[in-house]
Amino acid sequence: MKTLQILGSGCANCARLAGNTEAAATQLGMEFTIEKVTDMQAIVRAGVMKTPALVVDGKVRLFGRVPDVAELKTILSDLV
Amino acid sequence: MASPAGKAYEMKVENNRQARQPMALGSAAWIAAGVAAWWLIYRQLSPFADWFSFTLLRLSPATHLGSAVQFMVFETPKVLMLLLLVVFGVGIVRSFFTPQHTRAILAGTRESVGNVLASLLGVVTPFCSCSAVPLFIGFVTTGVPLGVTFSFLIAAPMINEVALVLLFGLFGWRVAAIYAGTGLLIAMIAGWTIGRLRMERYVEPWVYETQMGDSADDSAKLSWTERIHLGREAVRDIVGKVWPYVIAGIAVGAGIHGYVPQNFMAHIMGKGAWWSVPLAVLIGVPMYSNAAGIIPVVQALLQKGAALGTVLAFMMSVIGLSFPETIILRKVLRPQLIAAFVGVVTLGILIVGYLFNVLM
To answer: Which of residues 176-195 of B touch A (CB under 8 A)?
Structure first.
């Protein structure tokens, strides 16, 4: 079970990253939960200065950009 | 004699190098071929537009319609191609700069030097106003002075690659350079001024209590293939978003090319009207648009006799000071500091506007 978190203030890019990540994880057949983190203090505590960011099991894997589903699949499958 | 383990290691390094070389060469060759093709097509745009408008459609260059069509057919691909090239290049340059990297540079500099560096880094560090808050906290809690942080926050949106391309494409390198140069100056001086005002106590107290976490900064480790990928991603994101505005802008330009009388705007926004600069700023500050959206307006204003300083001031106040960004920053700044920020930047824009109306 992977915990996926999307860090960001809720802007359009965050929604796109959340959508792409969910699609990638589903296509990989992963077991996962996904949640959005919009609390600024939590974002900063994670060390993220450019949103949106993808956090997997508490570790920042990606920040500041929105990769497409194919690239997210590679990122996520490297972790399994 | 080297140990077997050492030999194995050497071989591995050798292999790595071999594996890497063709990759780098391959991408370099692709880029070179791409730029060459770009240049060849770019040079054909003007003859093509002439041929299309005057030979194929048999319009006369002397008529309003003829010159408007020629303008549209030439400018649209020209500006889109410039945009493509610059956004791709900027995307690659930005893959070398992350906020972490920029912060590390700025945390170790003195204030005045810091203001200059922060303004310059604001141009090349990827930034979007939705990340203004985490970036602000990340900077000030790790020792970047408040005024230096502001220099960065002012320069980052103000000097925008899309705006520069459009200014260069439609008005020439001089206007583009003036815009970038004065924008940088405003960021440096406004940030420095905010630093002198000693307004640290108007930062929300929780900001300084926040512990900035560590996160991996792997920008130095990226391969060229990955950097090129990032460049292409920037093209997809940015050009994909702004192209309708660009076309709209050129259409406005084409529309007024022959139809609206010259000097239509001269009365209201010309050099003679002293109140034109403050009026432009007053209208511009609450307005919010992306750089691409504002260019059509700028195009229309300049062509119809508005003064350059007035138009610069208008553009800077729309792009550089945005209402949504101040709302976002309100989370970390008290109203006094927001007022100082907006006030100092507005003053800077006013000075630039007047200066250019007097000089040019």
So the answer is: none
What ipTM score was computed for the predicted complex, to two decimals? 0.85
Residue A69: which CATH number? 3.40.30.10
Percent of chain B predicted with pLDDT > 70: 86
In B, which residues are within 8 Å of A13 by CB distance? 128, 130
- Hey, what are B187's tokens? 């960021």
Give the torsion through C-alpha atoms of A68, A70, A71, A72, to 10 deg.
Answer: 80
> Whole-model pTM?
0.82
Q: Contact B183/B321 with Cβ under 8 angstroms?
A: no
Report helix, strand and coil shares of chain A as percent, to nearest 5.
40, 25, 35
Q: Which of residues 15-54 of A touch B (CB under 8 A)?
A: 40-41, 43-51
Number of domains in chain A: 1
Q: What's the helix, strand, coil split of chain B in %, to 5?
A: 80, 0, 20
